[in-house]
Every structure is written in structure tokens, then in C-alpha cells.
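User: quick one, sequence for these C-alpha cells?
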């Protein structure tokens, strides 16, 4: 809803116009082989006051192979338990020293007002570790 010329703006409208940012960092290493496992510590919970809030999230996943890998590894954003958008993917060229931080960006809309949880989930091949340098940054923009 736009704010019109001459309109009296309420405190609630101003409060919803202010973006809110959150940051979470991984608290413990996660080792493969796992599928869609929650990344420890990479979770943010927030409450929206109106439906249709936009969630902009950035993840950086720190992949660290410890031996020959059994396939791809990836991280992904999940909102309220559902995976969304693209994956941050890692595939080794074969060397154990191929450690890599892989980023991914998201722009999603939560349709309902209320409490929401945004987290990073990972699927890791055998001999892959997701290190504690993995991070999640979330900014929530509410509609007026």
C-alpha cells in the first residue's frame, strides 16, 4: 500500500517500513554423508506483522573435503521447513586441498504474517565437512 501525499502515517506503518537484518554463523562442523541436514547455528527466527514480506538472504558455505569425495555437496536456504531457490554447490576437482567457500543469494516472499524460521540445510558427500565459517545473513522487508 503506498503512502499518499497528505496521509497521516501511523507508527505501525513506519515500523514495518524499516528493514530488519539478522546474521547467524555455524556453531559446529557438519560432516558427510548427510542429506538436507540442518547446519548447526545457521538459523534465524523473526516475526512479520503483515503478509507478503520479502526475505533477502545470503549464504556462504565453507566446504572442506578430507578425502576422495563421493559426489556433489550443496547448501540451500529453507524457509519454514521448505527448501527454496538455488543451491550453493561444490564439486571437487579431485584434490583434497580443494577447500572452497561457495555463496548463494535468495529473494523470497513469505505469504503470511507471523513467526518464520530461515535456515541453511546441507547435503554432503562422504569425506566432506562443512566448516564453522558458514554464514547466513537475512534482511526482511515488510509491506506497509
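Assistant:
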Amino acid at each position: 500500500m503506498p503512502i499518499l501525499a497528505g496521509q497521516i502515517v501511523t507508527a505501525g506503518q513506519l515500523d514495518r517500513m524499516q528493514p530488519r537484518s539478522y546474521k547467524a554463523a555455524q556453531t559446529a562442523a557438519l560432516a558427510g554423508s548427510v542429506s538436507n541436514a540442518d547446519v548447526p547455528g545457521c538459523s534465524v527466527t523473526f516475526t512479520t506483522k503483515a503478509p507478503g514480506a520479502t526475505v533477502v538472504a545470503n549464504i556462504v558455505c565453507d566446504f572442506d573435503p578430507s578425502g576422495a569425495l563421493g559426489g556433489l555437496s550443496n547448501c540451500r536456504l529453507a524457509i519454514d521447513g521448505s527448501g527454496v531457490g538455488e543451491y550453493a554447490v561444490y564439486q571437487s576437482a579431485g584434490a583434497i586441498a580443494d577447500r572452497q567457500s561457495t555463496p548463494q543469494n535468495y529473494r523470497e516472499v513469505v505469504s503470511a504474517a507471523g513467526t518464520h524460521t530461515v535456515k541453511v540445510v546441507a547435503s554432503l558427500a562422504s569425506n566432506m565437512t562443512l566448516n564453522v565459517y558458514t554464514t547466513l545473513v537475512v534482511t526482511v522487508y515488510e509491506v506497509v
